[in-house]
Specification:
Elements: H1 3-16, H2 21-24, E1 41-47, H3 54-70, E2 74-75, E3 78-86, H4 91-103, E4 108-111, H5 115-120, H6 122-128, E5 132-134, E6 148-150, H7 157-168, E7 175-180, H8 183-196, E8 208-210, H9 222-229, E9 235-238, H10 242-254, E10 261-264, H11 272-276, H12 283-291, E11 293-297, H13 306-319, H14 325-344, H15 350-357, E12 371-372, E13 378-390, E14 393-405
Parallel strand pairs: 1-3, 1-4, 4-5, 5-6, 7-8, 7-9, 9-10, 10-11
Antiparallel strand pairs: 2-3, 11-13, 12-13, 13-14
Length: 406
């Protein structure tokens, strides 16, 4: 390590204190991953190019690219290039992506659509000592990390925000809970219970766990829905996204459900509402508007703040659709890296950028201002969104603030 680099590392360690020692150790190869002032840097983008998470991967890519396009293709004063790698759908494919990108000398990593992949690459990222700015929801089990930061949220938070809301608004505890099998659903349900089961309130019955098949067919949910409706639930809470969300909502109403449906926001995120919307005279649209779908999420494209006006307008102009929480979180991942690289200055290394991430402070985000908490996830507001008509289309419209979590 050069004298200048050594002095810079010592300055950063002094600024952060001894708690940053593990993150501040230099790489095994002197000079590896360094860049001269203003020289190009590479950011590794881990996203799926096929499968059920492809739409999320596309949104993540679009959000990061939009930030670059609005900032002269630079991060922190350095020309930046995104280097994509295939995420796949398993720990093995995710680890292979990380290994390839690290060998290519990326300054940092971003992306990751699947919580399963995020858990699976944890040790690989930590051992590589290259910061990862994850831009989709992450499992609660991802604790005590040094190099993994997330700009989205932890999976138990939307359920917790909704649980508090339903308890405070007096919804009785006879709530039928539907979710696909898997650790992500357990996080969501645990958060919902934690938010609701306070001050003597209790949820009746056990969750109904369905197959985790990402592309269920017609009738896949009909039987468990009929069993639940036979008990006349006070409301329904569910945890689905993508094609599974479309099929669950359709089959729920086909089976005659007349009440409110609550869920984390990805139930109606992305293309779900356009797939459900059958037009002004459509039966499906009428059901949704009559009975009501309300979701909790950290973002909606109709939020009225300056950062969102810039982001949402540019996103619509560039991609001809409204942005989702996935695109917003990836846009913020770029913004976070921009601030951290700028703090490091003209000679960024992965370790120095990781140290700087702890010092960037508040982010002026389209979701509203937020900052990293100790577990390296956002402390942020959560919003109640209701599916309503916005012009001629079904849209997620913010109707209330729920809580600040994180």
């Amino acid at each position: 390590m050069s004298q200048m680099n050594r002095r810079r590392a010592l300055q950063l360690l002094a600024a952060l204190g001894t708690s940053g020692l593990a993150a501040g150790c230099g790489s095994d190869t002197d000079g590896e991953g360094t860049a001269t002032p203003g020289s190009p840097v590479k950011i590794g983008l881990i996203v799926p190019s096929s499968g059920p998470n492809k739409a999320i991967g596309d949104e993540i890519t679009n959000g990061f690219q939009l930030f670059l396009s609005l900032n002269d293709q630079q991060l922190g004063g350095h020309p930046a290039t995104l280097v994509p790698a295939e995420e796949g759908d398993s720990a093995k494919s995710g680890q292979a992506a990380v290994d390839r990108l690290v060998k290519e000398g990326v300054l940092a990593l971003t992306g990751v659509a699947s919580p399963t992949v995020m858990s699976g690459i944890r040790d690989t990222v930590e051992q590589a000592r290259v910061p990862l700015i994850g831009s989709n929801a992450s499992p609660t089990s991802l604790q005590s990390v040094v190099y993994i930061w997330r700009t989205s949220y932890v999976l138990d938070e939307p359920g917790e925000a909704l649980g508090v809301y339903l308890r405070q608004t007096g919804v009785p505890g006879g709530i039928a809970i539907f979710a696909p099998e898997g650790p992500g659903s357990r996080d969501v349900i645990d958060g919902f219970r934690r938010g609701y089961e306070q001050d003597g309130h209790r949820l009746a019955g056990d969750p109904i766990l369905t197959s985790d098949e990402p592309n269920p067919g017609k009738g896949a949910f009909s039987r468990p829905i009929r069993r639940a409706l036979a008990k006349h639930p006070d409301a329904i809470f569910c945890n689905y996204s993508g094609t599974a969300a479309v099929q669950f909502i359709k089959q729920l109403y086909d089976e005659g459900y007349q009440g409110k449906l609550y869920a984390p926001g990805f139930l109606t995120e992305g293309t779900v509402l356009s797939q459900l919307d059958d037009g002004e005279q459509g039966v499906q649209r009428a059901r949704i508007l009559k009975h009501g779908i309300e979701t909790a999420l950290n973002y909606s494209p109709d939020l009225n703040n300056n950062a969102n006006r810039v982001f949402a307008s540019a996103y619509r102009k560039t991609y001809s659709v409204s942005p989702t929480t996935y695109a917003m979180a990836s846009y913020d991942a770029a913004q976070v890296l921009d601030k951290a690289i700028r703090l490091v200055g003209g000679n960024p290394t992965p370790q120095a950028v990781n140290l700087a991430l702890g010092k960037i402070g508040q982010i002026d985000s389209p979701r509203g201002a937020w900052q990293f908490n100790q577990p390296r996830t956002p402390q942020q507001k959560w919003y109640l969104r209701r599916v309503m008509l916005d012009g001629r289309l079904l849209s997620n419209v913010v109707v209330n603030e729920l809580a600040t979590l994180g």
